[in-house]
Design brief:
alpha/beta, 8-stranded parallel β-barrel, globular
């Protein structure tokens, strides 16, 4: 006789069917109570969220924030920029510029060359560049600075200031989207804080929902709420974990809206943070100086203000003049990748190079050379290759647009067309037979050993040495500009120096 075994599921169902009805009703009642409690908690959370959002949205719930006129008048003197921000672990001297790096190393430049190019003491490290080595750091139990063997202080930034494309639709309340060579990856606040604990940077910027000034008011309010929430989570994490010695930098959201950014700055002014970050991508393309001054005026004077993502040397000086203590050098990567060499004489900005006076500047027969057209492509890896064209807003017509040859170029980065910079386009064939320094009186590594014609040859033949030499030249050049700014600040002439640069840029703009 064959005996069939009853399955465990049926045994359980039979057992439950024979259970005491009173006990079964009690279990169901407890489950209903638990569900009701969870629903109530979700409702309370949503009410709290809407209440926090309404503080930023509804002007009736909070008085409009106005700048501190006394502090704002002090910003005009620029004497406050000479500061020393001390900490038990490090010291920062302002004004200064931080090096934009890829996983702690300056793009295109090796460590030994970096030491000879006066590279600075602080490195900005975008989060996307270290995601692939986080597990290695955790296994080796090493900090990021020890892993890359650098003596620079590390600032971990979740937003890549060198690629400020409009990717706002990929951020949500759970986390921030980080774009790397492998594509997009969602990073939550908890995951990011764990990465900070593993990498052990001296400073780190909180997660921020960075949106440009072109978004609508509703999207701007969402970015403010998310950013402030992530800052609060980071503050709570640092207070609960005494082993984490990294200092928090709070980003100021608002997407260029004056009242939103003022309210956000007013709320963050009372938070326990080391400093504040203003992302250039959140500001209007032009006319942002008064807004930055108003924001800085209501922030504590004892904490540094960083502006990350400036577009050129003119915006560097504007940021210092507005009260920002530190900027970054992410724009140098764009210049070097596109074959642009900075030629602005920081000591005498009105003196500009004249390519027509250089030897043998006529090479009209080379203007139709296909190799020159091929050389106009960017050097090095670009995150734009992994970003859909409908997101970046780029098209083939813009990429293939020919540059004007034989003149000092007003360089226009593709993501901010109105921004301009005074550079030489060394891809142009007019520099093929110019055997002189890139910039007169420049003592950088490149100008001491090589000429414009040689760099032009490297660019046309697509040699990897070309962006390396340009990065060394541009880094040295911008360092001289920062030293000039320090000198002007000590003399109290920064505002006058900024006006002089404004006239030079307007003059070049009229001739472009």
């Amino acid at each position: 006789m064959m005996v069939t075994k009853r399955s465990p599921e049926k045994q359980i169902s039979v057992t439950n069917g024979n259970a005491n009805p009173a006990k079964r009703l009690k279990v169901e009642k407890d489950e209903n109570n638990k569900t009701a409690i969870q629903s109530q908690a979700v409702l309370e959370k949503n009410k709290s969220k809407k209440r926090n959002e309404s503080i930023l949205i509804n002007p009736e719930l909070e008085v409009k924030i106005e700048p501190d006129e006394t502090r704002r008048s002090q910003l005009n003197s620029s004497s406050h920029l000479i500061r020393k921000f001390e900490n038990e672990h490090f010291t920062l001297n302002s004004p200064d510029i931080f090096s934009h790096t890829h996983c702690g190393q300056v793009p295109h430049v090796t460590t030994d060359l970096c030491s000879t190019s006066v590279n600075g003491e602080v490195s900005i490290v975008p989060l996307h560049s270290v995601l692939s080595c986080v597990k290695v750091l955790e296994k080796l139990n090493k900090s990021l600075a020890d892993f890359v063997r650098t003596s620079n202080k590390i600032v971990l930034n979740p937003f890549n200031s060198s690629e400020p494309y409009d990717l706002t639709s990929f951020n949500d309340q759970l986390g921030m989207s980080v774009w790397g060579k492998g594509g997009r990856k969602k990073i939550t606040s908890k995951e990011y804080l764990c990465i900070v604990k593993i990498c052990q940077p001296e400073m780190f910027v909180s997660l921020s929902d960075v949106v440009p000034s072109s978004v609508n008011k509703k999207r701007a309010n969402k970015s403010c709420y998310r950013t402030l929430q992530w800052v609060n989570e980071a503050i709570t994490y640092l207070s609960d974990n005494n082993t984490v010695t990294s200092r928090l930098l709070a980003p100021i959201p608002g997407s260029g809206d004056r009242q939103l950014m003022m309210k956000s700055a007013n709320l963050l002014a009372s938070r326990q943070v080391f400093g504040y970050v203003i992302e250039r991508a959140t500001l209007p393309v032009e006319g942002w100086e008064d807004l930055v001054k108003d924001i800085v005026s209501i922030l504590p004077d004892s904490r540094p203000v960083f502006m990350l993502g400036v577009l050129n040397e003119m915006e560097m000086v504007k940021a210092y003049n507005c009260g920002c203590h530190f900027v970054d050098s992410s724009f140098l990567l764009h210049f070097s990748n596109k074959g642009q060499a900075m030629v602005l004489n920081s000591a005498n900005p009105t003196q500009l190079p004249d390519p027509s006076k250089q030897p043998d500047s006529s090479s009209e027969e080379a203007t139709n050379d296909s190799s020159s057209e091929e050389a106009t492509k960017d050097f090095g890896p670009s995150l734009a290759e992994n970003v859909p064209s409908e997101v970046t807003g780029e098209n083939e017509d813009k990429k293939k647009k020919k540059r004007e040859t034989g003149k000092v170029l007003i360089f226009k980065p593709e993501h901010y067309m109105p921004s301009k910079s005074i550079t030489l386009d060394l891809v142009s064939p007019v520099y093929t037979r110019q055997f002189c320094k890139i910039a007169e009186n420049c003592e950088c590594f490149t100008c001491q050993r090589h000429t414009r014609g040689y760099v032009n040859h490297l660019l046309i033949t697509r040699e990897l040495l070309a962006p390396t030499l340009l990065m060394l030249h541009n880094t040295y050049h911008v360092r001289n500009l920062v030293n000039t700014v320090k000198d002007k600040v000590e003399r109290g002439d920064l505002a006058k120096y900024k006006e002089t640069l404004d006239e030079v840029f307007k003059l070049k703009d009229s001739h472009s």
